[in-house]
TrEMBL record:
Keyword Glycosyltransferase: yes
Phylogenetic placement of the source organism: Bacteria, Bacillati, Bacillota, Clostridia, Lachnospirales
Pfam family, one: Phosphorylase
Modified residues (N6-(pyridoxal phosphate)lysine): 665
Reactions catalysed, as given in the entry: [(1->4)-alpha-D-glucosyl](n) + phosphate = [(1->4)-alpha-D-glucosyl](n-1) + alpha-D-glucose 1-phosphate
Name by which UniProt lists this protein: Alpha-1,4 glucan phosphorylase
E.C. numbers: 2.4.1.1
Amino acid sequence: MKKKPLSFDKDLFKRSVLYNVKTLYRKTMEEATPQEIYQAAAYAIKDAIVDHWMTTQKAAAEQDPKIVYYMSMEFLMGRAFGNNLINLQAYKPVKEALDELGLDVNLVEDQEPDPALGNGGLGRLAACFLDSLATLGYMAYGCGIRYKYGMFRQQIKDGYQVEVPDTWLENGNPFELRRSELAKEVKFGGYVNMFTDEYGRTIFRQEGYQVVRAVPYDLPVIGYGNGVVDTLRIWDAEPIQCFQLDSFDKGDYQKAVEQENLASQLCEVLYPNDNHIAGKELRLKQQYFFISASVQTAVQRYLRNHDDIRKLYEKTVFQLNDTHPTVAVAELMRILMDDYYLSWDDAWDVTTKTCCYTNHTIMSEALEKWPVDLFQRLLPRIYQIVDEINRRFVDQIMRTYSGSAGIDVQAKIRSMAILYDNQVKMAHLAIVGGHSVNGVAKLHTEILKQRELKDFYEMMPEKFNNKTNGITQRRFLMHANPLLADWVTEKIGDDWITDLSQMDKLKDFVNDKKAQAEFMDIKLKNKQRLAEYILEHNGVKVDPKSIFDVQVKRLHEYKRQLLNILTVMYKYHDIKSHPNKDFYPKTYIFGAKAAAGYLTAKLTIKLINSVAEVINNDPDIKGKIKVVFIEDYRVSNAELIFAAADVSEQISTASKEASGTGNMKMMLNGAVTIGTMDGANVEIVNEVGEENAFIFGLSSQEVMEYEKNGNYNPMDIYNSDPNVKKALDMLVDGTFSKDKELFRPLYNCLLNKVGGNRADQYFILKDFESYLEAQKKISDAYADKKRWAKMALMNTACCGKFSSDRTIQEYVDEVWHLDKLNVEAK
Ligand SMILES: *Cc1c(COP(=O)(O)O)cnc(C)c1O
């Protein structure tokens, strides 16, 4: 049976906008600024949301479903306004209402700052998961940090990245609710006092600590068309009652100031590192801060209507998004033992049944470790508990393996202990302290089981499982690409909105000439839309009829933007030396932020911009190649870019990209992948068929063999392959920079050992020729209009598996075991 759409009162909305403009700003519509109109409209939408939000909370109170707490340092939500309208099924009436008020919905949407409380894929995954949880009708809380400054805004000045603070809260956030009644205290430092109480129990009490007040802000997460509204709860830090006059001696004064400083610093800024650990003390404080507050509220919520804390896990599950939230294991142990007097064994039973861990990377620089002395100083009680978890676990390793023939027990301890070499290994704590460990794509999970976490897998195979990532089609098709969304609905109905496997039905149209033409016409319109954006932001005119070849993602050596731009440099040379050679016009589109301290990444951005400058202004090229670097890549412009992509560049060194999700967003929008057999690319090719993707390069097996044997020598390739040599020499011959030495560090990384790194550690030279070949095949395929239309359409038709709805349903069925909420949608 077809569900009735949610009701939305358009006239009420209109009146509400006018009223809000008046009461918030003492203005008429004519006088209000676009920002003020956005705020007024957002508050009007919030009114509608709050009703559903209350209904959801009431239903949860009555039905007592199990709740998942998705714990994550990052939630890369993107703009809320348009997405909320879509999920409320109110986009069209609101668009009409704004039209009638003389306003353009796109311009109103453009007033909203992008909440960028995340770096890249990991944070965006968390956002997609919340959308799917609400849409599938599960009770969920996202738990995170309300950074005052999210991911920095990127400006490009003279080709270089400049980081500008992201002041997303400057005008307030109309969708949030401050919940000061739920504030919690979080304690840092001091020492642990141990004594026996009147009942003979051993009591551990933290004393001499600093304390901050954690105040939650709730943001609504709206399910699609089902009246369910979940919550993203992000915590801000405030000083606890500033100065208590009665204890105003010298020591307390000092401490009051320190506490105030700590509170004001805690949630200031998101660390802008992706797949790399900064190892800063403040980062550990941030982790414990939001985890302690979140775990306290979860326990408190459970006890609102249950009395046996030993059964917490029946109604509560914590999913730890990477190791960043892993102190949750020890924090839950602390609360269960110190506040509720559970024995170690009982507390351990509850904790391991409540916690689950998602691994996101095998890259060694991303493995989170903390120096023991720092950890112990900052979190003295938590450290005691981790120490005891470790002691018992090492015992267990010894019991399991001593006496087993051919097994080196000390080696097992070395590879698995939580405390080793004066470090706290967070991944080991997460694995031992929970009942589920998952990778984020099949290949990644296999690599975890066979290599990185082999010893853990052998000891506790039942914990390991795969959950291939996904993305939400509500944002990345409905909102990002309304033309294509409407076309799909016209062809197969609208069930795909909540069941992406329906896209399969588009396969009936892949050979249909009319459908092909319509599909490619929509792509062209989206390319025109992006071309306008590029003209406005870059001042570069690009041809919407050229191939839009897109690589947008964080800048990282393993993602190999350098490989991409080196082949662009090579082709520039090739066209210049063969002016009459056929070359299908191509627009290379890049977008990427580099971590502020990552020099190689920043120099790669400069290189891309320098290459763009030279090529775009060289009349010899006759516009056959254009290169564009889109400034400040973020969710809002990503939506425009994905919709316009012909070619999706997914060219990481095999084995390094755990999953990737940008690859899925582009597939959904009908882009064809050029990529390595890495991460979820493997599964994408499996769905769409090898003939509808362009795969090249070393396999993960081959990469790992070279790494093990250390027998890769890029200099041999440089000396024997003239194409490679030409591309590399152009880095240092002045073609793209007056200062010939500017790009020397990139050249050196490719040919020599630098620092502790092997020469060309990401195998760029090794994969260069096969990448060029794949690119040639793409140009040939694109020149054949019908062939390309079919391939592109096949990609959209085969993307069903990559909905985050599917991922979440797998977590629910295999790990979380949640109950569906029954909400009367109105
Ligand atoms: C999807 C997405 C990412 C992740 O992209 P990958 O190509 O998987 O690294 C990063 N940033 C934004 C804004 C995204 O939307």
